[in-house]
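Thread: quick sanity check before group meeting

JM: Hey all, I'm pulling together slides for Thursday and realized we never actually wrote out the predicted structure for the chain we discussed last week. Dropping the sequence here so it's in one place. If anyone has concerns about the input, flag it before I start.
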Amino acid sequence: MPPPSFQKVDVIPFASASAPSVSQTEEEVWDGEDVWEEPGAVASMFAVLWLWVKRVTIATALIVTVALLYLTKEKWLPQAKSAAIVLGEGVDELADRVPRTVPPEAIEAARAQVPYLQPQTIELIMAKSTEGVLAPVEVFRRAHQAAERARPSLPRTVAAEIDHHIAAVTAELEPGEGEQLRSYFATVRAGTATAAYQDQEAAWLMARGVKRLPAERIARMQELFAQAVTAALQPPV
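JM (edit): ok, ran it. Output follows.
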């Protein structure tokens, strides 16, 4: 039997554009309703009251604490001061133990103008200063101040030998220059402050006189000043 003609095949019509889509997602529907009620006058009053209660409580606690501290200051204030002093001393001791690096060129510059100090002595003077690097004239001044401070703790022979070498230096200068240098060291020994120009002149005169001494005497001066400066700046614990 032959197949039917295409003219006799049923045609399926297109769907209408107005027809609803099968894949359309239905929107969710909230059956309930949002309800917001304005707080009542009583609730608002209690909220404000609770806020002020907290504020008054904190303020009262602070006032009571301050009053107690003031009334008992005779007991805790001395202890607090002692603790602060001990803490400060501990910080200073820790700072002294921390090694400070002194540039070698700064040591050599000071050694050229203060030839009777060893490099280690110059480094110690700079390391103990807050500035770190010092000018040669400042190294000169601090070295002699340290030697004067250490004088009571030094053996009498050491202190006397330092004075003997300084006298030998002044003898190498002109009479007026020698007198000027002796007057400067007397001022330092008395603990009187010196001017910068006085330090500079004394350092220059001292260096010129020292360079005229024999090498053996200069080496001995280096040993004596190393001992004196170390005793003043780095006393044994």
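AS: nice. The chain has nine helices and no strands. The chain has two domains: 54-97, 104-233.
JM: adding both to the slides.
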